[in-house]
Amino acid sequence: MLIKPFPQVENIHPVAIPLPGYSDLITGNVYAVGKGPLTLIDTGPKFPGSLEFIREELELAGFDFGDVERIIITHGHLDHFGLAVSIGEAAGHPVECIIHAEDKWRVSRENLYGEMWSEEANNLLAMVDLPSEEVKKIRERFSFFKELCDPLDNVSVMEDGDEFFGDGYHLTAIHTPGHSPGSCCLYESRQRVLFSGDHIIKHITPNPLMDIKRDRLRDPHYQSLKAYLKSLDKLNGLDVRFVFTGHGEHVEDLPGIISSYREHHRERMDLVWKALKRESRPLYHLIDEVFACVPEGDTFLAISEIFVHLEMLINEGRAELADPGPPALYRAR
């Protein structure tokens, strides 16, 4: 057992898919909601054996893939939509897939097979002064990602406040940008359960990821950490009994974990500021001072984390871009 069991909640059937090789995430969580027909919330990645794992868990709950009528995707990262096509094929009938409009392009064939690595990415890595050997590693990792999902050519879109009904459930979409511009939580009002995707995770602080392809965004001035902190505010006052997260164990104290996230980001912002105080330098050269350890393959996440905190420091007047480069040089104020 990788995580402790989820609490039993009427008409909600959690499926925690093991993620070998991704120990930081522990599991990829899928939720079957309803008495039948079912709505699935997320699908997990296209790992060998994952589809069969979901099938077996559904059978234990008294269902099969034929009972699935729709899939709601919390955001457009492959570990949340990777199996959507396979599940639709296994169902044997059309299964509607729904994602927030801001993330629709992320699940497209155009993005996964044509644009996943872009000139914008090359420019970014030059701007942060990433060594060529690290660039190669990141490009190889991005190339591998597309093996873990199938593109969604036919997908419907949802917006903040959209509602989804079925026998035994009532879901409301809450647009919570930050981890991605189209990230959404789903609130089941009857059982007071919040399905949080990667907006809330118990064992790690979710990454508000910088967005490279700015031309895809509704708001050209979008800043992920600023958006993420504002999205946390949207959950204030929501009557939540359990948070069913995208990875790992469920959460019972939503206000407490939100408070811990805010403290984490304030501390991380101060670390970045203090590092710049000691010496002005390009972003890549801040990593060792900001992070005690960066696991192999996570350099891009470290760069992203520092970048979004730099944006906030600049907003607050505590840092500035001293030289646009490349590489770009930042300094504390």
Q: In short, what is this structure?
A:
With 333 residues, the chain is of the alpha/beta class.
Q: What can you see in these coordinates?
A:
By secondary structure, the chain is an alpha/beta fold. The protein has 2 domains: 12-127 and 142-261, Ribonuclease Z/Hydroxyacylglutathione hydrolase-like (Metallo-beta-lactamase, Chain A, 4-Layer Sandwich), CATH 3.60.15.10; 267-332, Orthogonal Bundle (Arc Repressor Mutant, subunit A), CATH 1.10.10. It has 10 helices and 13 strands. Helix 8 crosses helix 10. A 6-stranded mixed sheet has the order 1-2-3-4-5-6, with helices on one face. A 5-stranded mixed sheet has the order 7-8-9-10-11, with no helix packed on it. The protein has a two-stranded antiparallel sheet with strand order 12-13.
| Total count of strands | 13
Average the pLDDT over all residues and give the rounded result.
93
Strand content: 15-25%
User: How many domains, as an integer?
Assistant: 2
CATH topology of the largest domain: Metallo-beta-lactamase, Chain A
What would CATH call the architecture of the largest domain? Answer: 4-Layer Sandwich
Describe the secondary structure blueprint for this structure.
Layout lengths: L11 E7 L8 E7 L4 E4 L8 H11 L7 E5 L5 H4 L2 H8 L4 E5 L8 H7 L3 H9 L4 H14 L10 E3 L4 E4 L2 E7 L8 E5 L4 E5 L26 H11 L7 E4 L8 H25 L8 H4 L8 H17 L3 E5 L5 E4 L1
Parallel strand pairs: 3-4, 4-5, 5-6, 10-11
Antiparallel strand pairs: 1-2, 2-3, 7-8, 8-9, 9-10, 12-13
Labels describing this entry:
2 domains; five-stranded mixed sheet; alpha/beta; Arc Repressor Mutant, subunit A; 333 residues; Metallo-beta-lactamase, Chain A
